[in-house]
């Protein structure tokens, strides 16, 4: 492998790795297989990688080889000054907020590590469409905005909601759930985050798998010790999205989180065709 890239280590997949230490060890094994490394110096694990491997670093808030300044929102994403190799060059990415710029810096650092000239990398970055299911705006002809995002961990949900809150004009209505047969410890944490950072949070099913949706929802609600008046439960995901759209007014933003661009919902052991984006389009247009 030419280059391994580390972006962050956050609470996820603990049902597989058992602990954050086990999760970190699994991620670090990647760099034993790579000839060079790229790591996020804003993350303490990234700083440890820098000490052990041939590493090019990127960061928004720490000293690093590739950084960004002067972030500003533009029509289709975020513009910024990319700083690398002693230069400062205008750049842009089709995504919103610091999380998108951090990912863009990871791309730039990786391409530089591979020997691609900075100007070529920045041009290619600007030409890329936003990744499907990542802060993806659904084109509804309504006075509100709808976005779908794959955020299914506490850190991801927190980052997306904080990014949206920073630019919000109206209310934020969040629809989300947690996957069944997966890490239960993150459920109450995500409940707390959604309640704190949303004006209204509707807790629903994600991919319940073999668990009962009501039990998953109960685990999520256990974390809602404050702002309980902002939280509703609607187990059926389509009905939950319909309720969110009905609540949305002018300048409000509806975030449908957890599944992103997935084209199915896993119920029991069956993958049932389902899409958050298509569900939003159908409901917002009044189609049946």
Question: What is the β-strand count?
Answer: 14
Number of helices: 10
Give the class-level CATH name of the largest domain. Answer: Alpha Beta
Helix content: 25-40%
Strand content: 15-25%
Largest sheet: 6 strands, mixed
Mean pLDDT across the residues is 94
Class computed from helices, strands and strand pairing? alpha/beta
In the CATH hierarchy, what is the architecture of the largest domain at level 2? Alpha-Beta Complex
According to CATH, the homologous superfamily of the largest domain is Mur ligase, C-terminal domain
Organism: Actinopolymorpha rutila
Domain Mur ligase central: 2-110
Domain Mur ligase C-terminal: 133-260
Protein name: UDP-N-acetylmuramyl-tripeptide synthetase
If you had to describe this structure to a student in words, what would you say it looks like?
The structure is a single chain. It is globular and about 50 Å long. Strand 10, helix 8 and strand 11 form a beta-alpha-beta unit. The longest helix is centred in the middle third of the chain and has 17 residues, at about 95-115. The chain has a 6-stranded mixed sheet, sandwiched between helices. It has a 6-stranded mixed sheet with strand order 7-8-12-9-10-11, sandwiched between helices. A two-stranded antiparallel ribbon has the order 13-14. It is of the alpha/beta class. The chain has helices spanning about 15, 20-30, 45-50, 95-115, 120-125, 155-165, 185-195, 215-220, 235-245, 275-285; strands at about 5, 35-40, 55-60, 65-75, 75-85, 85-95, 135-140, 145-150, 170-175, 200-205, 230-235, 255, 265, 270-275. It folds into 2 domains: about 5-125, UDP-N-acetylmuramoyl-L-alanine:D-glutamate ligase (3-Layer(aba) Sandwich); about 135-285, Mur ligase, C-terminal domain (Protein-Tyrosine Phosphatase, Chain A, Alpha-Beta Complex). The chain contains 10 helices and 14 strands.
